[in-house]
Specification:
Length: about 140
């Protein structure tokens, strides 16, 4: 089930390995998660665009000296977008694995995952406009 990685560790823990008291090291969990995030950023154009937009939002936040609640909103939006795009990437990979040929349900699954990422992007855009437009307008007016 699942195959092994280059270091002969199973990619996926099975019900047998979970049930026999084998511990899954926290360091392995973080390592795998980091590898997954790196792979998603490396392979997905939209995630690289999101990363660039995150840098712009952070730079604007510092430049415009936004308040703490605004920083929290920016951080939540950045985290949400990375999470949504990464889950979208994972869903697309699993659907491609399960259904290499065209299937209507595969298309629907991929479209729904992409739609979730789009909804998050639109919400983040609105939050960014609410946070950044007033201080930008004030700066331009002065």
């Amino acid at each position: 089930m699942g195959g092994t990685s280059p270091d002969n560790k199973p990619f996926v823990r099975s019900a047998e390995t979970k049930g026999k008291g084998q511990r899954y090291k926290l360091t392995s969990a973080f390592s795998n998660a980091g590898r997954g995030l790196f792979e998603a950023v490396r392979s997905e154009r939209n995630l690289r665009i999101d990363a660039c937009m995150a840098v712009v939002a952070i730079a604007l936040g510092f430049g415009l000296r936004i308040d703490t609640p605004s920083w929290l909103a920016v951080i939540v939006c950045i985290g949400m977008m990375f999470a949504l795009e990464t889950v979208n990437t994972a869903i697309e990979a699993v659907v491609d694995l399960a259904s290499p040929g065209y299937h209507e349900l595969a298309r629907r699954a991929k479209d729904c995952a992409a739609g979730a990422a789009l909804a998050g992007a639109l919400a983040s855009f609105v939050v960014g406009c609410i946070i950044f437009i007033p201080p930008i307008m004030a700066f331009l007016a002065s």
